[in-house]
Write a structure and sequence with these properties.
The protein folds into two domains: 172 residues, FAD/NAD(P)-binding domain, CATH 3.50.50; 202 residues, FAD/NAD(P)-binding domain. It contains 13 helices and 26 strands. A hairpin with a 2-residue loop joins strand 24 and strand 25. Helix 1 runs parallel beside helix 11. The N terminus is likely disordered.
Length: 415
C-alpha cells in the first residue's frame, strides 16, 4: 500500500476494480480529501485497447501497463479480489491475490467497478480448450500459443494436412476484439513468419467466425463490409452466421455442420457478469448491476456502480472503455459534490465513436461526424490511442515499440 499522506479523517471511500472506470475515477479525485482504498487483484492499470497488439508483440505488455501506486499518491492499494459485500455493515470481504488470506474493508462510500468476464454462452469446450483475451496473462498465453504452434508445424516428416491443422488459428467472435486479434495474427504471419519461415507461412490459416450475419455489428454497415473484404484480400477466412457449438482440442464445430480442424482457438465472445457481481444482493439487468441515472444502486445512496459491470436504468449503454472512462470522470465530480453536501447530477454519455484495426496498416473509424477506412483511419487509430495512454512513460514506450517493429519486425522468440 502507498505510504504517501492521505486524509485519515476524510470520507472512507473504497473502489473495487482498476479498469477504465475505477482508474478514471481515482485519477480525477482529489485524494488528499478522501481516505481512499483501491481493492484490485492487480496493482496496475491496463490500457485494454492495445491488448490485441500485445498478443503478437506489436507493442510489449509493459508498455501498456501503468503501476497504480506510482501514479496515485495518497491511495491505499490492496491487491485482493472482492468476494462479498455486507451492505448493512458497510463492509467488503476480500481475498488476497497473493497468499489467499481473507479480510474485510469498511467503507462509507463504495464504488463497484469490477468489469466483466468473457462470456462462453454455455458452448461446450470453451473453458477447457479456448484462449480468451481479457488480461495480461491471456495475452501472454496467446502469444506463446501462436509461437508453439509454429514450432510444432516445423517438425520434419509431418503430412501436409497435419501441418495445416497445427497452423490453423480460429478466432471466435466478430466484434472489435476478435477482428483486431485476427488482424494482428495475420500481420505476424504475413511479415515475420513469411520472412523467416516462408513454407510455414504458406500453410498457416486464420479463420474468423461470427454467429451473426456480419462482422462488427456495432459499426456502420459499410465499414463492416469493408473489413470483410479487406480480410478476404489478406487471406483471412471469414464465416458469418456460423455460431460455434463445440470446441475440442483439435477442432471447432459450427452450427451449420462445418468443422474446422485447428491448432489454436481464441475466444472473443461478449461479456458476462463476474461471480462477484452475480453474488451481490442487488437488482440486475442483463446480468449487469442496475443503477439510477446518478450511478447509484437503488435504495443504497452510498454505493455506486460503473463500467462494464453496471447499466443505468432506461439508459442502455455499451460495455466499452469510453463509457467506463466517462462514468469514472463524472463520478469523481459527483463525489466531490456529495462531500460538500450537494446532490449528484445524472450521468450523460457522449459517444466519441469507435475505432478498429483491420491489419495491413489499415483501420476503421466510425465517428459521429463521419466514417473512414483505410490508411487515414489507421493513422487516426494510432493517434487517438497514443493520446489516450495514461502517462508519458506509456506514450514513449508505445512509440518506441511501433518504431522498433517497423524497422526490425516483431520479436518471434519463443520462451
Amino acid at each position: 500500500m502507498s505510504g504517501y499522506p492521505r486524509a485519515p479523517g476524510g470520507p472512507r471511500l473504497v473502489v473495487l476494480g482498476c479498469g477504465f472506470g475505477g482508474y478514471s475515477l481515482l485519477t480525477r479525485l482529489d485524494l488528499s480529501r478522501w481516505d481512499a482504498t483501491l481493492v484490485s487483484p492487480r496493482n496496475y492499470f491496463l490500457f485494454y485497447p492495445l491488448l490485441a497488439s500485445a498478443t503478437v508483440g506489436t507493442v510489449e505488455l509493459r508498455s501498456i501497463l501503468e503501476p497504480v501506486p506510482r501514479r496515485l499518491r495518497g491511495l491505499t492499494v490492496l491487491q485482493a479480489e472482492a468476494e462479498a459485500v455486507d451492505f448493512a455493515a458497510r463492509q467488503v470481504t476480500c481475498r488476497a491475490a497473493v497468499g489467499g488470506e481473507t479480510f474485510t474493508v469498511g467503507y462509507e462510500t463504495l464504488v463497484v467497478a469490477v468489469g466483466a468476464r468473457v462470456a462462453d454462452y454455455g458452448v461446450e469446450g470453451v473453458a477447457e480448450h479456448a484462449l480468451k483475451l481479457r488480461t495480461v496473462e491471456d495475452a501472454r498465453a496467446i502469444r506463446k500459443g501462436l509461437l508453439d504452434r509454429f514450432a510444432e508445424g516445423g517438425v520434419p516428416g509431418l503430412p501436409p494436412e497435419e501441418v495445416r491443422r497445427r497452423l490453423t488459428v480460429v478466432v471466435c467472435g466478430g466484434g472489435p476484439t476478435g477482428v483486431e486479434v485476427a488482424a494482428e495474427i495475420s500481420d505476424l504471419v504475413r511479415r515475420e513468419i513469411a520472412r523467416d519461415q516462408p513454407e510455414l507461412a504458406a500453410a498457416a490459416r486464420v479463420v474468423l467466425v461470427e454467429a451473426t450475419d456480419r462482422l462488427l455489428t456495432g459499426f456502420d454497415e459499410a465499414l463492416a463490409g469493408y473489413a470483410r473484404e479487406h480480410f478476404l484480400s489478406a487471406g483471412i477466412e471469414v464465416r458469418t452466421s456460423a455460431p460455434v457449438v463445440e470446441v475440442s482440442p483439435r477442432e471447432v464445430r459450427l452450427g451449420g455442420g462445418e468443422s474446422i480442424r485447428c491448432g489454436l482457438v481464441i475466444w472473443a465472445g461478449g461479456n458476462a457478469p463476474t461471480p462477484f457481481v452475480e453474488r451481490l444482493d442487488a437488482p440486475r439487468e442483463g446480468g449487469r448491476l442496475l443503477t439510477d441515472r446518478t450511478l447509484r444502486l437503488p435504495g443504497r445512496p452510498e454505493v455506486f456502480a460503473i463500467g462494464d459491470c453496471a447499466v443505468p436504468e432506461d439508459l442502455p449503454l455499451p460495455a466499452t472503455a469510453q463509457v467506463a472512462q466517462q462514468q469514472g470522470k463524472h463520478l469523481a465530480k459527483q463525489l466531490e459534490r456529495i462531500r460538500r453536501g450537494l446532490e449528484p447530477k445524472p450521468f450523460r454519455f457522449r459517444s466519441a465513436g469507435m475505432l478498429a484495426y483491420v491489419g495491413g496498416g489499415e483501420a476503421l473509424a466510425d465517428l459521429p461526424y463521419g466514417h473512414w477506412s483505410g490508411r487515414a483511419a489507421w493513422i487516426l487509430w494510432r493517434s487517438v490511442y497514443l493520446t489516450k495512454l495514461v502517462s508519458l512513460a506509456n506514450k514513449v514506450k508505445v512509440l518506441f515499440d511501433w518504431a522498433k517493429n517497423r524497422v526490425f519486425g516483431r520479436d518471434v522468440s519463443r520462451f
